[in-house]
Design brief:
- The complex is a heterodimer of chains A (839) and B (528).
- With 839 residues, chain A is mainly beta.
- In chain A, strand 37 and strand 38 form a beta hairpin.
- Chain A is globular.
- Chain B is α+β, with helices and mostly antiparallel strands and 528 residues long.
- Chain B is built from 13 helices and 28 strands.
- In chain B, a hairpin with a 5-residue loop joins strand 6 and strand 7.
- In chain B, helix 4 runs antiparallel to helix 5, helix 5 packs antiparallel against helix 7 and helix 9 runs parallel beside helix 11.
- Chain B is elongated, with a radius of gyration of 32 Å.
- Chain B starts with 20 loop residues before the first helix and ends with a helix.
- About 4% of the residues of chain B have low confidence.
- The interface between A and B is medium-sized, with 31 and 26 residues.
- Chain B: This is U3 small nucleolar RNA-associated protein 15 homolog.
- Chain B: Part of the small subunit (SSU) processome, composed of more than 70 proteins and the RNA chaperone small nucleolar RNA (snoRNA) U3. May be a component of the proposed t-UTP subcomplex of the ribosomal small subunit (SSU) processome.
- Chain B: It comes from Cyprinus carpio carpio.
- Chain B: One of its GO terms (biological process) is positive regulation of transcription by RNA polymerase I.
Amino acid sequence: MVEESDVRVVRFGGSKINLRPPIISTDSRFVLCTSGDSVKVYSTRTEEWLHSLQGHTNQVTGIALNPANHLQVYSCSADGTVKLWDFIDGILIKTFIIGYPLFAIYVSEKHEGIVFLHIAMDTDSKKEGFQLVAVHLPKSAEQEVEAKELSAVSSHISPNPSCTAFGREGQYIAFARNLQLNVYFFRKQKTYSFSLKATDKKGAKNAFTCIACHPTDDCIATGHEDGKIRLWRNFIHKKEYTYSTQHWHHNAVNTLCFTPEGTNLLSGGIESVLVQWQYGTGNRKEFLPRLGGSILHVSASSDGQLFCTSHSDNKITVIESSFKVCGVIQGLVKGDAVLTDLMIDPRSKALVLNGKPGHLQFYSLLRDKHLYNLDIVQQEYIYEAGLDQFEVVKAAFDIKGYWLATVEERGQKSADLEFFLKLWSYDERTQSFVLNTTITAAHTDRIISMCFSSSEETTMLVTIAEDGQFKAWCQGVDADTKQDQNFWSCDFVGSYHNLKPTNCSFSADSSLLAVSFQEVITIWSPDTWELLTTLCQPPGVIRDLCFGRLSCSKYLISTTTRNLLCCWNLLTCALEWSTSVEVSKLQSDPLSENVAAFSYQSKHTDLFVFKPNEPRPLFTHKNVCSEKIHRAVFVPREEPLNNCDESSQWLNRSQLYFLTQNMDLLTFSTATEEDRMLSSSTRLVIDDSVAVTPFYLLLGKHRQQQQKLNTPSHQAADRPQQPQGSVTITELLHTPAHVLPPASVLCSMFVSSLLISNTGVLQDPLRKEMESSEQEMNSEKEEEDSEGEMEACDSQQELRVQGSVDEVTPKLSKAQERELKRVRKTDFSWMAGLIASKP
Amino acid sequence: MASFKPTKVQFLPKLGEKVTEDTLYWKNYKSPVQIKEFGAVTKIDFSPLAPHNYAVTASTRIHVYGLHSQEPIRSFTRFRDTAYGGSFRGDGKLLVAGSEEGLIRLFDICGRVALRQFTGHSKAVHVTSFLSDGFRVVSGSDDLTCRVWDVPSAVELSSITEHTDYIRALAPSKLNPDLFVTGSYDHTVKVFDMRSGSSVMTMQHGHPVECVLLYPSEALLVSTGGRYVKIWDLLKGGQELVSLKNHHKTVTCACLSSVGNKLLTGSLDRHVKVYNSSYKVVHNFDCDASILSMAVAPDDEVVAVGMTNGVLSVRHRKHKKDKETLTSRRRRGPSYRVFVKGKNFVPRQDDFLVSKPVKQYLRKYDKQLKSFEVSKALDTALQMWTRTSKPEVTVAVIIELNRRGTLKNALAGRNEESLTKILNFLLKHIFDPRFSRPLLTVGDIVLDLYRQVLHQSPVVERQLQRLMEVLGREAELQQELLQVLGILDTLFASLTPRKEVLWEEHCPMSLNNHCVSVSSVSADVCRI
């Protein structure tokens, strides 16, 4: 247990970004969304992840723009705090401690300094009771404030946060629960409630699923489980309310949203069609079909020019008001279950697993970014609840990443199972996988597992199925025509006493194939298809098989369902050692001898890392998590670490990622790695004047230094015009890369923009540049030296910043404005470092 | 926004024939030209010289045809009785033929009258040929003798009587002027050497020999007779190499193609079979009548087959040039210019490009599926042309509907006419192993849906009756197959396990499952 201080379990990226509605900033340049215990900021134009607001210690459950200052955002979390952020610079401004787990946040322009929060009812009754409370946020200059002024607005509200909405100018708040719609008027301090019948005559389900209030009219739109949308009017008088019904969705309406002017109503549901209803014209509507997974949330920007939909496949789509998709932000798709193993694409080193229905997704772990989806099923996906459709259930890569084998299945529930085995080859030209062979009836029953041979010269695929057979597939020579064919065909069918196979594995040099049949391991030679030997160690059906690597390649490790981990020596065909451990997942590192075993015992999972040649584990980590682990993968590092510490040595060449049953992607990280991460996390501050493009991020650092140089020395008068001011540079930065003219053309423009105009001082520009760079270096050094002294004065400055942001002064004098601009331009990145290092 | 993905139509290969280079090569012949002769065509011989005219021996005359002419360019009619075995000399200038009356005539290819007449045989001479020096003629006769004649002097050089029955096959060696091979109805094939004046090799064919043939290397000898084709290795002293039994009637003729020396055999069973170098049949030509003679032109330009009904059927090779003219003749529609109009425009440097969204082309049923009109999509897929010529498209739409869970909706609410269409389709394809699985579900659903109203329509009822018969037959067939499978299993159980594994690999489908599902549906039909 001592080692744990060094190697830690870390939650890795790829968390849900579709939990709560995304927010578009007022200037439509950023999209904010909750993602695990942080808030992520994306650019709407480039779909690039800019930075994340980190500080919460639990799931972030809601975000809302500060109505008083459009550059700030509130976030609430299950850790019981509400935080106020400056999302452009990624600075935490304030923390309000509420003390209860929070589940949603609402703000209204009319109620300044008050946030409305969902909190759980007192936990004595186990029912899902939620309460809507108004919290008065105290005004104080401190960083952390306890907010104790809670006043309940209503109890018994729906746990679904989209069932609560503020009405016109914040005069009332509407919330629905099951079959009841409640409207609370702040002025009258009264709640009116309207209820629907449990079922219609037609047997429709009437329960409310979402609510939206018209921004300028007294009208509430409600969505229902049967797909109807009702528009409620005249609810100010309790008795005389009316509603009109519109019906297009065939499944429940998940979300409703009025555009800011109130001219249109947007709705979305499982069908994955965004519907735009024209307000007040009855039934005129527009559609935007096939957006991806089912639509969970829709939000509109404050100027109504952009819409944002978030989908069940962990995706945010940015849509222009002309109903054109202009951007897609894709997270790691985890769906209901990860059916394939976690795999690493040998080419791109991306994590591969099944993503949105019928697709394999490639996810870059390094950049925490979704790379692309590979359409495996190639069929139209029908968005309908309860429909049994093809899912990718198995996938395997060969060692060079040239071949990909996939199995798709349909009809897991019903009796007639349909499945296809597909083989994909990598096309260098298109840089993606191309379908090579489809095998319709590969086996007569479900395929349990498959693996590619790991030798370099010949690729062979072995599949094992529940029909008791294993088959070897080759892309070989046809016996009849003696011609090389480029498609795959069956080479060998094997079975062992009609027993059901459970797993298969190739040895490191592909000279041996091990197939386990129930309690027996059979060793085959893939060249001659001869059964070489059988190994048997009852009791218990064999679950995992894995050959040792490198110096331990003579060992074969197997785990059984009856808590046994055996290590066989293949030279002597004898049991080398065995131990009694309940292993749920065995994973070997392709780059070293190490094997990781996750064992699930007494409600928590432990990790053992060992080398097959010695029974003593190299590393143990107790209580990794509380769930069983079935998926894990070793990801090769870009550059090996050189840890000498024995406990973390096994992480030097590759990293171990694993997936819990709650679909959390976790990994082990070492202390040195964290240090490195920390140093790189001091991010570049985004300048306001330039749109954020990846190109900008590249150039940004250089620019910053120049700015640093610029601000302290007020000799701007005699200095040449800064490059960023020139039209050429802005053009260069704003045009997308693929429409840019060739670099040779750009170069001359760029250089000429750097030159001083001939009216300026007649000085050699090159020398000037050199001088300036020298100056830059000097000033940097100075800054570093004086950092200690500056801290005091900077903290004052910081206070001032907070003050100025907090007290909202609608009109600033010109001098103040200038001051504010100057303050904003100063570099605070060192402060972010300070904050991060504090806990 | 992703675009609509059209329905995937699966092209399942038909079981059986494998397409190889050879089959493609031999398929590449035009449909045969039929030329009527006066009697059974007993011998066809191609001239070795360039225009490659060919002599056809039928009834009492020998016609010489040009390679592409359908009228004889020359004919030799001075036979009093049936002529036999007209064959060219190596320089293509002389032609020799035997006849029923025992006379052997020698013609100049340009003249009409016989240059020489060799008399001596007492019975019909069926086979004659020049030896490779060109100055001697060898003949085989029904009087059991084999004689060699000198051409300039028209004198009999030697007569050999070693066969004990009619001599009906003869092949001179091309490399050695003193060697020739004869085949006789006494079941033997003999190799004669004129230098010793007797046979040097004798092979037992086992059946009356109809034809002998030497490979160009003269290491291999082919003899046909009975239903057998046998290949002999002369260098190993006449050892039998292979015995082929691919015809089911007497094999009457054999010849070699000039490209790759592929063996062709023709038989009374009206088939010409083409073998590859490992003596597996790669192609099959069908003819109208029993085949008596056959020849392949040099370069395989022409395959000429003579039959008992006096028809000479000539197949010409297809050429790329022909195909081009054919297609160019067919295309009479709008020209290429119309289709590329404006599409090959290259924008200039400072042009502003406004891209037009590419319209996705969808088939009609896909359009209907896109707008969720399931019944209409099924109707479209069941249109006459689709269901007859492309049943896999219809089945693909059915599978797609089933996947969407709307197959029942699409099948419901149909009138007698459209239901008949569906049932007709089922009747035609339900036992096709490629389609049976989805179609059985269709049958199930149709029965479920229309159970109550079926007896209102006699037409539908009759069709269901037929469907039941078809399924019953199929179930019986499957049962028999399973029995055979069981028998084979016991057989293979006694063999090595390795063999068993190989065999299972070739077993194409699980017959078992199939059988069970077939019988369940037929049981359903019975209940109604």
